[in-house]
């Protein structure tokens, strides 16, 4: 990237914040790589990557309140847009959701209808919407059990719950370490295939700083391409600088589980489509009228116009002139003096 380093020469870096929807782990490795390998810095950005605190996973509110300029959400981001909130989806890093139901290996639960009257843990309507909708669309009403202060996984192991919501990289790793058999019942298996880990910004910030958004997008995608093609390095980097409490084995398990959701044959990294988002709206049973009113502009279009490229090339040309002309003049003066 010929012009990249000149952003730091010509002006101080632009400071922005990326709000994660969970705590540091390989799930966000592409952004760590972009920061630690200098991809953001090369494009004139200073990025603060903030993890979720406790169970506060509402990255949308933080971006809309301008506490962060970028965030990571899920397919439920579309619902926010259709409610009139100015969120803009930049990339869908996971082409399928990593949320699934966890059941015992010999459980009679295989499909949504099998959940009827079964005991499950409480769900977050905002974070795990696809798990709820998968059951609701079939008219299934499981029994939601209040397990108090006990962790859902412990209650599931004890048999107090028939199924719990899981992220495919977390609880399954714990169970594998303990030698406990399990099965996963995932929305994708039953016709409910939605995006996961959607990078987004606000329309307000996009309108005010389109080139900053373009640079952040470019550097982030570069970071993810490197992370997925260099797993050992990106796992080690994640462990060293961010997920310090996780083992390399745990991060490697996570990478193995997530990589197939991100790098799919025939699909560009982070790809989104109008048709897929409209299908997701139907799966979530979102109203068609707001779709017609608010969907336009929901998907970010990376800036590739000649105007922006010209501005970068102009910066490069000015930087070269500022360096080359004084050097040339000095050499000419020295040559004349030596005669």
TrEMBL record:
One of its GO terms (biological process) is thiamine biosynthetic process. Pathway: Cofactor biosynthesis; thiamine diphosphate biosynthesis. It catalyses: N(6)-(pyridoxal phosphate)-L-lysyl-[4-amino-5-hydroxymethyl-2-methylpyrimidine phosphate synthase] + L-histidyl-[4-amino-5-hydroxymethyl-2-methylpyrimidine phosphate synthase] + 2 Fe(3+) + 4 H2O = L-lysyl-[4-amino-5-hydroxymethyl-2-methylpyrimidine phosphate synthase] + (2S)-2-amino-5-hydroxy-4-oxopentanoyl-[4-amino-5-hydroxymethyl-2-methylpyrimidine phosphate synthase] + 4-amino-2-methyl-5-(phosphooxymethyl)pyrimidine + 3-oxopropanoate + 2 Fe(2+) + 2 H(+). Pfam families: NMT1. Signal peptide: none annotated. The chain crosses the membrane at residues 310-333. It comes from the Bacteria. Keywords: Iron, Membrane, Metal-binding, Pyridoxal phosphate, Thiamine biosynthesis, Transferase, Transmembrane, Transmembrane helix. Residues 25-228 form the SsuA/THI5-like domain. One of its GO terms (molecular function) is metal ion binding. The keyword Ribosomal protein does not apply. The keyword Protein biosynthesis does not apply. SUPFAM superfamilies: Periplasmic binding protein-like II (SSF53850). Responsible for the formation of the pyrimidine heterocycle in the thiamine biosynthesis pathway. Catalyzes the formation of hydroxymethylpyrimidine phosphate (HMP-P) from histidine and pyridoxal phosphate (PLP). The protein uses PLP and the active site histidine to form HMP-P, generating an inactive enzyme. The enzyme can only undergo a single turnover, which suggests it is a suicide enzyme. Belongs to the NMT1/THI5 family. Homodimer. This is Thiamine pyrimidine synthase. It comes from Pseudoalteromonas ruthenica.
């Amino acid at each position: 990237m010929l012009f990249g380093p000149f952003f730091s020469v010509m002006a101080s870096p632009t400071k922005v914040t990326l709000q994660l929807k969970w705590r540091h782990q390989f799930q966000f490795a592409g952004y760590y790589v972009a920061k630690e390998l200098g991809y953001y810095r090369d494009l004139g950005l200073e990025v603060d990557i903030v993890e979720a605190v406790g169970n506060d996973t509402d990255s949308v509110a933080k971006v809309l309140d301008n506490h962060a300029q970028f965030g990571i959400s899920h397919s439920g981001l579309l619902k926010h847009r259709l409610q009139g909130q100015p969120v803009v989806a930049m990339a869908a890093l996971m082409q399928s959701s990593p949320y699934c139901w966890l059941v015992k290996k010999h459980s009679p639960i295989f499909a949504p209808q099998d959940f009827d009257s079964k005991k499950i843990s409480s769900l977050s309507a905002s974070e795990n919407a696809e798990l709820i909708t998968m059951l609701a669309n079939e008219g299934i009403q499981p029994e939601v059990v209040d397990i108090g202060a006990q962790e859902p996984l412990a209650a599931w192991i004890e048999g107090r719950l028939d199924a719990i919501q899981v992220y495919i990289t977390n609880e399954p790793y714990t169970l594998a370490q303990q030698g406990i058999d399990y099965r996963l019942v995932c929305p994708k298996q039953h016709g409910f295939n939605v995006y996961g880990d959607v990078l987004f910004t606000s329309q307000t910030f996009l309108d005010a700083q389109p080139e900053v958004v373009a640079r952040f997008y470019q550097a982030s995608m570069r970071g993810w391409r490197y992370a997925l093609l260099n797993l050992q390095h990106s796992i080690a980097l994640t462990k060293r600088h961010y997920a310090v409490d996780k083992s390399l084995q745990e991060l490697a398990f996570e990478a193995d589980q997530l990589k197939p959701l991100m790098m799919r044959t025939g699909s560009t990294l982070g790809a989104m489509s109008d048709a897929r988002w409209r299908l997701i709206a139907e799966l979530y049973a979102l109203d068609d009228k707001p779709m017609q009113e608010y969907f336009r502009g929901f998907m970010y279009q990376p800036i590739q116009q000649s105007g922006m490229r010209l501005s970068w090339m102009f910066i490069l040309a000015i930087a070269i002139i500022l360096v080359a002309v004084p050097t040339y003049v000095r050499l000419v003066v020295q040559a004349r003096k030596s005669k």
